[in-house]
Amino acid sequence: MSRSASGRVPALLHPRLVVPAVAGLLFLALAAAIASGRSFAFDRSLILLFREPGNPAVPLGPAWFQEAVRDMTGLGSFVGLFFMMVGATLGLWICGRRRLAAGLVASVLLAVLVSSGLKIAIARERPDIVAHAALTFTASFPSGHAFLSAAVLLSIAGFVGLASRRDDIALFALLLAATMILLIGLSRIYLGVHWPTDVLGGWCLGVVWSSLATAWAGRRASDLDPA
């Protein structure tokens, strides 16, 4: 990879630009393919990978593990993410970063509207090859749990990093958010309520959303808030 004379990676090749750009293109490709009615063979294969061989009605693992997965998927629900957002918002507000707090709330509320709108517009059917181990009420693409967990948790991590102005805190928040997002998304496939491409599309859109929120609203508010 070429570098500038100072040894730094050129601005256009910085991961903060490349990662959301690639994620955005992948989301658009998936959305276009799914909206046109295309299906993916690996969607079916990956769902069955989490099921007992020869008995797709039963998820892999003992009962306690299945319950743990349902607990994990609950962290990506509206209720779970709501309390995480409220906790982060109040923390930023108490620390005097009120514009950051307001920016976080605005970003999350708009993400919820976008998630609902995309589900209605694309109207993909939920998986029908296994019994659902959790209740569902909306269309399948993109996964609301995957999209909103990525949008909310990555935005929280980004805003906390901006508020702290410490690289170690920003990295810790990012790694914690990424771990939770990964587990929440996989739980949706394990429970049979989403195709893997639903989750992948949700992750991609969440990365784009949180990147824009942090780069625009977050940094602008951070500059205006007192140090």
Commentary on this structure:
- With 227 residues, the chain is mostly helical.
- The model has no long low-confidence stretch (mean pLDDT 86).
- The protein contains eight helices and two strands, in the order ααββαααααα.
- It has a two-stranded antiparallel sheet with strand order 1-2.
- The longest helix is centred in the C-terminal third of the chain and has 29 residues, at 196-224.
- It has a domain at 74-227.
- 39% of the residues are buried.
- The chain is globular and about 55 Å long.
- α4 packs parallel to α6 (144-164), α5 packs antiparallel against α8 and α7 runs antiparallel to α8 (196-224).
Structural class: mainly alpha
Q: Whole-number average pLDDT?
A: 86
Which parts are unreliable, with pLDDT below 50 for 5 consecutive residues or more? Answer: none
Strand content bin: under 5%
Ends distance:
36 Å
Strand order of the largest sheet: 1-2
Keywords: Membrane, Transmembrane, Transmembrane helix
Protein name: Phosphatase PAP2 family protein
